[in-house]
Write a structure and sequence with these properties.
Blueprint: H1 2-20, H2 27-44, H3 47-55, H4 57-60, H5 66-77, H6 84-90, H7 95-98, H8 103-111, H9 116-122, H10 125-141, H11 145-162, H12 168-183, H13 196-213, H14 216-232, H15 236-245, H16 254-270, H17 274-287, H18 295-311, H19 331-342, H20 345-354, H21 356-362, H22 365-369, H23 371-386, E1 389-391, H24 392-399, H25 404-416, E2 423-426, E3 431-434, H26 445-467, H27 476-513
Antiparallel strand pairs: 1-3, 2-3
Helix pairs in contact: 1-2, 2-3, 2-5, 5-8, 5-10, 10-11, 10-12, 11-12, 12-14, 13-14, 14-15, 14-16, 16-17, 17-18, 19-20, 19-23, 24-25
Length: 514
């Protein structure tokens, strides 16, 4: 109990000091505190303590003394120099860190003289796995991708051999960094010789093991990494087969659900299933945090969502581009939306040419190229709404089409696709004739849009209910005692009522006698 209070106090002080800009907790102290959290997670079999330790990685990696503190943490967890676990971890650190004196470790051992149980509790597999994650982070930040890939392969193999549920959150993180190391090795994706191709068998084996062991954390993480792997090399067919033949765990963390929905939306968009892609991407943006380190993912998912909405023939809300976290990132897409909205083919081509590099980096370039036909259809629809009759020559001029034959083909296709259903072509005179438009509110479109919003809100409500934590069997005794108390109270009320009835009868009998 005292250890738990100490952990909460240190974490609270750390958060308050970092928010206020005052002195922050030393890096070595944060790592040692995380050891106690992991120890408590193993004792209570509660992964929430491990997740609290993992959340501090973002803070630790920004510290200048991260490598020195990591070395001190390794020596604290494994005081013996002959320990193989310590040797494997220290090999990945710089020479200056390895040559440091073991003063901190010796002091910690001296403090725990006569308390051998504490030392033995620290030297557990979960602590070694946590230190392995910190080594992965250090190698990734220092761009040691080849050494990190080799170390990560050995780390995930060792973690997989343990088969302990208390290691599930740590193992899922280890696979994430393993994938990141391979993505940064030359040749980079989408080259067919990229090292990410050699990583797929190991990820598939990890997925099979996670399903058999009911390891939902690793199952969700590896599924997302496989989808990311397939999409990086444009293997959309294999990604679709993976989605069809696997089931994403319902108990996965929110960040994994967001990533899964995003990649699934990208797959469906490439497969021309825009409706399903729109629903997945919209769910991903709604679930994603809009502040902190997740802003990049939120921006990327919003970019893909905007392109899919344009491909569906819809125009995104202007308020989306005014959000502070999206305004700068969506500047090229705002110009793109303006060109598509008015059907300006020349402006669309210019916007694509100017921002081609940006669109390629976002992975939306091939989808944006499909918008050319939508721009032309939008232009034709705008012309049909503005003019009851317009010549094909004017259509060529306004839409920057090469010839009247092309304009006639475009308008005929638009009429067949119900883009301008109340129009017809006058072939003899070369005109597009439009009749009065239909009443949208007389159709089912408003009710369908309202139904989609209700479905999204009901789905969010169901997820919130599932995310609630209910008391376990520990409160059963308290419930039984409360039930007994209520029964005793009912008995007392019954006795009081019976006494009152008897008193009334006695009073009534007395009155009859009088």
């Amino acid at each position: 109990m005292a250890d738990k209070m100490d952990i909460d106090t240190v974490n609270g002080e750390q958060k308050e000091e970092e928010k206020t800009g005052g002195p922050v907790a030393p890096t070595e102290k944060i790592i040692s505190t995380n050891f106690a959290l992991i120890n408590q997670a193993v004792d209570s079999f509660d992964p929430r303590f491990t997740l609290r330790a993992l959340r501090s990685i973002a803070t630790l990696r920004k510290r200048e003394d991260f490598a020195q503190a990591l070395g001190a943490g390794i020596r604290q967890a494994f005081p013996k120099e002959s320990n193989n676990a310590r040797r494997v971890l220290e090999e990945m650190l710089p020479e200056s860190v390895r040559q440091q004196q073991n003063g901190s470790a010796s002091a910690s051992v001296a403090e725990t003289n006569g308390k051998k149980d504490e030392v033995e509790v620290v030297e557990i597999a979960e602590v070694w796995a946590y230190l392995g994650l910190l080594v992965q982070v250090y190698l990734l930040d220092t761009a040691s991708h080849q050494a990190g890939a080799t170390f990560s392969l050995n780390l995930v193999d060792k973690l997989r051999s343990f088969n302990r549920r208390t290691m599930d959150p740590l193992g899922s993180k280890a696979y994430l960094y393993l994938s990141l190391f391979h993505e940064n090795l030359a040749p980079l994706p989408p080259s067919p010789q990229s090292p990410v191709l050699s990583l797929r068998p190991k990820l598939l084996a990890a997925l099979r093991s996670a399903v058999i062991r009911n390891d939902s954390d690793t199952q969700a993480a590896v599924t997302v990494l496989l989808l990311r792997n397939y999409i990086s090399t444009a293997d959309i067919t294999q990604a679709d087969l993976l989605v069809a033949q696997t089931q994403f765990p319902a108990t996965a963390a929110n960040n994994q659900v967001c990533r899964y929905l995003y990649y699934l939306g990208r797959i469906r968009a490439i497969q021309l299933a825009y409706t399903e892609a729109h629903s997945n991407l919209e769910a991903a943006t709604r679930k994603s945090p809009t502040t902190g380190a997740a802003v990049g993912f939120y921006q990327q998912a919003t970019k893909m969502l905007i392109v899919v909405e344009l491909l569906m023939g819809d125009i995104p809300d202007r308020a989306t581009f005014r959000l502070p976290v999206l305004e700068k990132a969506l500047a090229p897409y705002f110009k793109l939306v303006q060109a598509v909205r008015v059907g300006d083919l020349g402006g669309f081509v210019k916007c694509v040419d100017v921002n081609e590099g940006r669109f390629r980096a976002d992975g939306t370039y091939t989808l944006i190229l499909r918008l050319r036909q939508n721009v032309i259809k939008t232009g034709v629809r705008m012309l049909s709404l503005s003019y009851s009759r317009i010549s094909l020559r004017d259509i060529c001029t306004r839409l920057s089409v090469e010839s009247e034959e092309s304009a006639e083909y475009i308008t005929a296709k638009a009429i067949r696709d119900s883009v301008i259903p109340d129009s017809r072509l006058d072939h003899e005179n070369g005109y597009l004739v439009t009749t009065s438009g239909r009443d949208v509110y007389g159709s089912t479109e408003p009710s369908e849009a309202f139904h989609e919003r209700i479905g999204a809100l009901l789905g969010m409500r169901d997820e919130c209910v599932r995310a609630m934590r209910y008391p376990g069997n520990r409160n059963r005794e308290a419930g039984i005692e409360a039930q007994k108390a209520r029964e005793r109270e009912r008995e007392l009320v019954g006795e009081v009522l019976e006494a009152e009835d008897e008193e009334d009868e006695e009073m009534g009998g007395g009155m009859d006698g009088l």
